[in-house]
Amino acid sequence: MKTIAKLSLASLVILVLLFSCKKSDSAVGEESADYAAAADSTSVISSSAAVEKKDSKQKFIRTADLKFKVRNVAKSTYAIENAVQKFGGFVTYTNLQSTIQNQIKTKISQDSTLETTKYTVENNITIRVPNTQLDTVIKTIARQIDFLDFRVIKADDVSLKLLANQLTQKRSAASEKRVEKAIDTKGKKINDIIDAEKTLANQKEANDTSVIDNLSMQDQINFSTITLQLYQNETIKQEITAGEKDSHEYKPHLGIQIIDSLKNGWYILEAIFVFLLNLWPLILITIGGIILYKKYKRN
Fold first, then answer.
1. Which residues, 6+ apart, have CB-to-CB distance to 162 below 8 Å?
2. Which residue, among 144, 159, 123, 152, has the nearest Cα to 226 in the 3D structure?
3. Which of 102, 104, 98 lies closest to 241 in space, CA to CA?
4. pTM confidence score
5. For residue 161, which phi and psi values (nearest 5 degrees)?
6. Which tens digit of pLDDT belongs to each residue from 152-166?
């Protein structure tokens, strides 16, 4: 008997160990599947397009445009905004809105109505992040993606344009100095001075435009622009509201209606009597005419 009991106990221990091993294997498998899904979504949208090297003379304006579905637009919006702030970026535009697709009202009792609303939620976001953090931010955004519609990343090389603007500034600065010197030394006639001043003003304006253009491009180089379009599945919301009563329920009782009818009839009779009184001259003339007609007819 003791031997049988020992054998049963050993079998039970082996079964428990086998069950725990299977459970741990399944947990590891699920964790691996989740990690693979997250890694897959990250690899789909992340990009190292045109990443500048430290010693490179090339300058790129990098932009990204993404549209994807999320489980909850509001929660994903807050998560993205927090991530952008964390990596030194900022949000320049966000438009979170709900669009009603259909609305049905069903009367479920005398004083209650079931209101069913089908709506979609979407948000268009424009953010700017440091150029060096673009890929990191995109990988962070990938955690919110449930389904990716498209991802477009552009990198425009503006090195030559920056150089052209710098050369334009140098030429303009040199020309300004020559014109200023000519005005100071050779300008005698008022007309010549006015023409030279106009030329100088035009050159300064062109120089300022080049400077502003360069600053704008430098800002776009330093901070990349990301445009996001978020949406979620159609949502259904149901709520019970107070129902509208039938207009017939607000009508007075029959007795009150009879009294009101008698009053209205009396008011109409009074109005007719007053109207006839206003026509007394016409009535008097008519009666006199009838009397005269009968008198002459007898004669």
1. 59, 214, 217, 218
2. 152
3. 104
4. 0.57
5. -65, -40
6. 988 888 777 777 777
